[in-house]
Amino acid sequence: MAGVPRVRNMELTTAEPARRYAGDAAAEPFEAFYRANLDRVHRALALTLRNNDLAREATDEAMARACARWDRLHTFDNPAGWVYRVGLNWATSWWRKTRRESPTSGTQPPTVAPPDATALAALAALDRLPVAQRAVVVCRVLLDLSTADTAAALRVSEGTVKSRLSRALTGLRSTLNEEEPNV
What we know:
This protein is mainly α and about 180 residues long. It folds into two domains: about 15-110, no CATH class; about 115-183, Winged helix-like DNA-binding domain superfamily/Winged helix DNA-binding domain (Arc Repressor Mutant, subunit A, Orthogonal Bundle). The protein is about 65% helix and about 5% strand. It starts with 5 loop residues before the first strand and ends with a helix.
C-alpha cells in the first residue's frame, strides 16, 4: 500500500518519502514509539514465551498492527502494553496452529540465556512459573506497567493481577532460596 508506514526487517520504512508525512500527526509519533519500545516489547515477549525467534516475529506482527491502528492507539495510556498483548495473542495462536499441524513435535527451539549465573538462576526460576504468572511478572517488572495497565493488557481483573503476582513472587523466592548454596 503506497504511503502507509510498515515494519520490515526491524526498521520502520515508508513507501513514500518522509516529507509526505510532514502534516500527518500520527506518522511521526509512531516512528518514535517504535524506536523507543521495540526492544523492550521484544524482551518482554522473549521472557514470557521463552523463545527468542517467536518473540521477534510476534513483536514484528504486533508493531505492524500498531502502525495500522496508530491513529486510535496513540491515545491509549499505554500503547506498549497493547503491543505486548497483541504479540502474546499472536504467538499463542501460532503455537495452537503449529500444535494442530504437528502434534508429535513437542520440542522448542533454543531460548535466550543471560550470561551471568545470577541472571541464569532468575531466568530458570521464572521459567518454572506458569505462563499466566510469568506474563504478570514480565508486565509489572520488565515493562513497568501499573496493576491496572497489566490487567488491561492481559485482559484479567486487577485482583487477578495481584494474586498472580503474589503467587509468582512467592514461587520465585522459594525457587531462588532452594538454589542458594548454604553458607
